[in-house]
Write a structure and sequence with these properties.
The chain has 301 residues and is mostly beta strands. The chain is 0% helix and 39% strand. Among the domains are: 63 residues, no CATH class; 136 residues. The chain has no helices and 18 strands.
Length: 301
């Protein structure tokens, strides 16, 4: 057998310490090898050594920097199971916040308030962004409901608290009596501003009396002096809207004071006054082949 050269192993006690260093062999029949790096370093630390990694179960204090000379730096958190997720948690005496990347919710990214038990922000895998709080359910994506968003400042005047798109059934009513569905409207509502498109094609009107009115998707602003007008409306045929020879068109108006309907007004050449369209003008009550198309933007309550 040839000679072998062995590195020296030296265990040196601390001059002022009385602690005992114990090296315990694992409870296994398989040999284990520990290879030290060819450099000087510290394997473990005690409380207060914030420039070294802790042992398993320990607490790391101080700043942590990840530096790489080139390419992308990354921290890999790997766990088994299809519902695993990584969490970065920030906690102090008053609050406890978490940022999570969850594989059980379509690779979504969540900011969660652990103290309150609610989600604050969710970026879904399709790129959609939800901001708000949960409605009392679990931490799932479906629990987030809309909250206020501030644009250009953080005062009440900068709050965007609503965005909505949809349709509503246009109901024709008479100011005295009678009502019925005549078409479908389309709206986009941003904050208190609502833009509406009215479409009435080949409708059958109900029997009504009084001023001809259309329903709105949202109640108008409670401002009695406010009047909001559309541009000229497409109306057909003329005989169902007016019998006047000085007819110059129709516009749609919404008045304030919590308006729930808008009315049509005739433009005439002889008086330059706007007269509301009513059941006494044209053949617009209990008739077929009734048409109108227009859009209007108004302020909601």
């Amino acid at each position: 057998m040839g000679d072998s050269i062995m590195a020296k192993v030296k265990i040196q006690g601390h001059a002022s310490g009385t602690g005992v260093l114990t090296v315990t062999a694992p409870n296994t029949s398989t040999d284990r090898t520990i290879t030290l790096p060819d450099a000087t370093g510290t394997l473990a630390l005690t409380t207060g050594d914030d420039d070294k990694l802790p042992l398993t179960g320990g607490t790391l204090t101080g700043d942590v920097s990840l530096v790489k000379s080139s390419g992308n730096s990354q921290i890999l958190v790997e766990a088994s199971g299809t519902d695993a997720y990584a969490t970065v948690r920030v906690k102090n005496d008053a609050k406890d916040y978490s940022m999570q990347i969850r594989s059980d919710q379509g690779d979504s990214w969540t900011v969660r308030d652990e103290t309150a038990g609610v989600n604050r922000l969710l970026i879904q895998s399709d790129g959609s962004l939800l901001v708000g709080t949960t409605d009392g359910g679990s931490s799932g994506a479906g629990d987030i409901v809309a909250s206020a968003i501030f644009l250009g400042g953080n005062q009440a005047a900068n709050e965007l608290d609503d965005y909505e798109e949809g349709t509503w059934t246009i109901v024709l009513t008479g100011s005295n009596s009678g009502s019925g569905n005549v078409g479908t409207g389309y709206y986009t509502k941003v904050g208190r501003t609502c833009h509406c498109i009215f479409i009435v094609d080949d409708a059958t009107t109900p029997t009504f009396s009084g001023t001809l009115q259309y329903s709105l998707p949202f109640t108008g602003a409670n401002i009695a002096s406010r009047q909001e007008n559309s541009g000229d409306c497409y109306t057909y045929p003329l005989s169902k809207w007016t019998t006047g020879s000085d007819y110059q068109g129709v516009t749609f108006q919404i008045y304030g004071a919590n308006a729930t309907t808008g009315l049509f007004v005739l433009k005439r050449t002889n008086t330059h006054r706007q007269t509301p369209v009513s059941s006494s003008q044209g053949s617009n009550s209990n008739t077929t082949g009734f048409y109108s198309r227009f859009s209007i933007t108004y302020t909601t309550a």
